[in-house]
Amino acid sequence: MGRGKIEIKRIENSSNRQVTYSKRRNGIMKKAKEITVLCDARVSLIIFASSGKMHEYCSPSTKLIDILDQYQRTSGKKLWDAKHENLSNEIDRIKKENDSMQIELRHLKGEDISSLPYKELMALEDALENGLSCVRAKQTDVLDMTRKNMKFLEEDNKELNFIVNQQQMAYENAREQMDHGYQRARDYSSQMAPFSFRLQPMQPNLQERM
């Protein structure tokens, strides 16, 4: 007996639904890969599960955006509004500018210049000379600023040395005055020594009387 026809409807049991989704997803992914190899077809497949998880497949050497652009041109249906088209054009423009700047940077480094015509080589030489002049001018500014800073530091150092010397002199003068005052006090004490006297008891010594 052959298998009965399965009715296609939503599977109510969540576990069975998840198992069926995994099997069918793997099967359709396998078919997409097979038709890519067997028939040299360009295939792009996107699947979103009920949980929101995404699974995708794209043929080798194929980008999803290229397939979508081809679909838009072939079907005549607009996938992008004017805002997205302008954004895409702006991205393309920036990419081209970046590529051009990368090429110019390599030329300024002296790379890939063997195929450049004479006019472009002359323009490159002018650009390098202008850049070198700007670098030298900047170096001169930096050196001038360094000299000015050194001069300011030297003046500050002189001023600090003057202040320190003044404080040192004031300290030495104060110390000399203190030493001089101490010496005068000692001299005065020495001069007053001959005039010192002893107090004698007013009563005679009782022991002598006895």
Question: If you had to describe this structure to a student in words, what would you say it looks like?
Answer:
This protein is mainly alpha-helical and 210 residues long. The protein has 5 helices and 2 strands, in the order H-E-E-H-H-H-H. The chain has helices at residues 14-39, 64-75, 82-108, 118-192, 206-209, and strands spanning 44-48, 54-58. It has a two-stranded antiparallel ribbon with strand order 1-2.
Break the fold down into its secondary structure elements and pairings.
Blueprint: H1 14-39, E1 44-48, E2 54-58, H2 64-75, H3 82-108, H4 118-192, H5 206-209
Antiparallel strand pairs: 1-2
Give structural attributes:
210 residues, two-stranded antiparallel sheet, 2 strands
In short:
The chain has 210 residues and is mainly alpha-helical. The protein is 69% helix and 5% strand. It starts with 13 loop residues before the first helix and ends with a helix.
Structural class: mainly alpha
The percent range for helix content is 55-70%
Strand arrangement within the widest β-sheet reads 1-2
Spatial separation of the terminal alpha carbons: 165 Å
Strand segment count: 2
- The portion of residues forming beta strands comes to under 5%
Provide a count of the helices: 5
Contiguous low-pLDDT stretches (5 residues minimum) are none
